[in-house]
Design goal:
alpha/beta, six-stranded mixed sheet, five-stranded antiparallel sheet, TonB_box_CS, transmembrane helix, membrane
Length: 795
Amino acid sequence: MAEAADFQGTSASPARRWLRRTGALLAGAPLLAGLMQLPAASPADAAATDASQAVSGAGSVAVAVNSLTPSAPTEGDTVTVSGTVTNKGKQTVTDAHLDLRVGPLLDTRSGIDSVAKNSDDLQSTLGQEAGDKYAEEFSQLSPGVSQPFTLSVPVDELDLGQDGVYQLAVSLAGQTSTQPWEQTLGVQRTFLPWQPEEADTKTRTTFMWPLISTVHMTAETGSDEQQTPVFHDDELAKEIAPGGRLDRMVTLGKDLDVTWVIDPDLLASVEAMTDRYEVPGEGDDTVVGDHQDVAKRWLTEVQKAVADKEVVALPFGDPDLASLAHTGTSVTGSLSHLKEATDVASRTVDSILHVKPTTDFAWPVNGAVDPSIVKVATSAGADKVIARGDTFEETGLSYTPSAPRPIGGGTTAIVADGRLSTVFQGDMTSASTATLAVQRFLAQSLTLGLQTSRQRSVVVAPQRTPTASQAQTMAEAIEALQGATWSESQDLTSAAEAKPDPAATTKVPSASSYPSSLRKQELPRSTFEQIARTQTKLDKFKVILSDQSRVVTPFGRALNRAMSVSWRGRQSEAAIYRSGVEAYLDGLLSQVRLIDKSETKLSGRSATIPVTVQNNLVQGVEHLVLRLSSTNPTRLEIGGNAYEEQPVTVSGGHSQSVKFTTSAHANGRATVVAQLYTQDGQKYGEPVTFDVKVTEITATVMLVIGGGVLLLVLAGFRMYTQRKRAAAREAAEQEAESGGDDVDGPRNPDAAEERPRQESTDDSRADAPEQPSDPAPDTAPESADPSGTGERVDR
């Protein structure tokens, strides 16, 4: 009872607690002797007493406000509050009644924050009851049991005075068996905005509605003509399916007057799902995704939702601007990826949604900025940076200024209101939490509007990826605000063009003021080093391709995704993604290579050596140069020099043999190196090294062989002559024998002997059959096919 005398909203001081305890001891001294004569209490009785005291403590009954309608009442409305009461203690609460109480006017934004922080504190002011006839009674509340309630009070009965925000409390009073007197056992405070008449000067409010997801697509594509995309998971299908997070964002946002802020990567990923796509299966296998209809439906709904609305396109993949500024700029080429991501953003959104987006806004994480972040954010062409009031703090003003702040260099900081932007964070799955968030949002908005009669533009930049329940709560708050009397909607571009408040600060926070909690989540330097390494490999690869777009586009977008804000807090997953992109590129690079060769034998002074280039890609390669070099040109020259180069063009899925002319000067083994180069002189792939064994024939050996051949020719000629003569004699004898039987008179024996000899001298040379030893008329043609690996290469 002594604590009841303390000032409400304050805790008892140590001195006051000591006085109360001392007084209690003195008051109980006369009874001490008598009590000493009584039997000692059993441990069970003592435990029961302690339990009853705990049950009767503050907050033993939880009051939940699940709905409050209307959120911003006007004249003639009836305020209806519904919810539940739950007995959290171990004692039954009896004679309980629930009342609606209106507290004092809250005229500061910090005052609203304080009430929201201590919304169930029994020690704080409760306000006056609306009246017994509007109360609800409970005969008893059993431990652990929840009971619903509904309280309805005409707004005229609440005695609301001037315009502003009033504390509205639902309190439950009752008693227990151990403390049989009425006491407040539970309370829940919320806010009631009150401005029944239209404001003379309304606050122009811009609400950013983000359509952003995490990274889902890889750099890998199929070898078919359509380049079937490969996703590293199928989670995006769940988000865009009916009831999913992104489905709710579109369904809720289409009826709201908001500015859509979209990551083009999300649209590109969903569009890829409208046709054939693949997702991981068991092991290393992939399976065909089957959510094409879901993807088509979602894109159609997005197109309808953004029609006639402002659309702001973030750079492709939503790159982490703060990480780029703090760790990425020290790595060469990092900012070029931001420029590419910005350039492709507009084309992507326009081609899919058929609207021309705005691309001159940059949105760092949580709106936290410093000079380096602003510099990076504007390096790709954006001239407006969305900051937030809790990092871009205002000093010296008693009111919240308009959002635009010129910060120099033609750049404007759009400072979103910190309180309005963060009110929807946290778990919004319970109706009570969501209702309190909506009322707090409206209360802050009205209080801001009543701070001054100046026309102001306010921007609300919520969390990047709201959950479905957060999106639902945001939509309820926006609907209530759009129907309120003190605010009017405005798109983001109009807010940026509003007249800046000359009294507002334009100084960008220093680097030391950047929140350490955000800095710990940034992408490390190794992220940008790996991206740069992968880009270098891609630059080397693309120059040899006949169709560069099949590789440049998927890998370029994958590198944009590797810098995404969505990797914050997921460093291991980010590293796996980046390594997967680089490993896949390495695999493609290895598809164009030189075939290994074993030792080659070279006989004679000169010969050709074939080297085979294999292309296992589906497209042709060109702009390659094959260089064959001799490590010992004094023994073996190639093309008359130490090396020779030849251009290479190979169709997809084929191999090409390139022949090089060699000259040998001495016998022995010479090492030869084959290496592919791009046309700009960069090495491509691994070299192939092999040995050439030279077995050159000397002049002495050639003379010996020549002499032997000459002897063989002379011997053959003599044999041929002898055979011709023998054939002639045989023919003459046969003719003589036949002539002895002639009946026409006597022969002249001398004439008979001369004629066959004359015939053998003339006719036998033409008619005699060819002998085996005669020389062949010509040699067989030399094969033009390249020798295989390890084969002998002849002159």
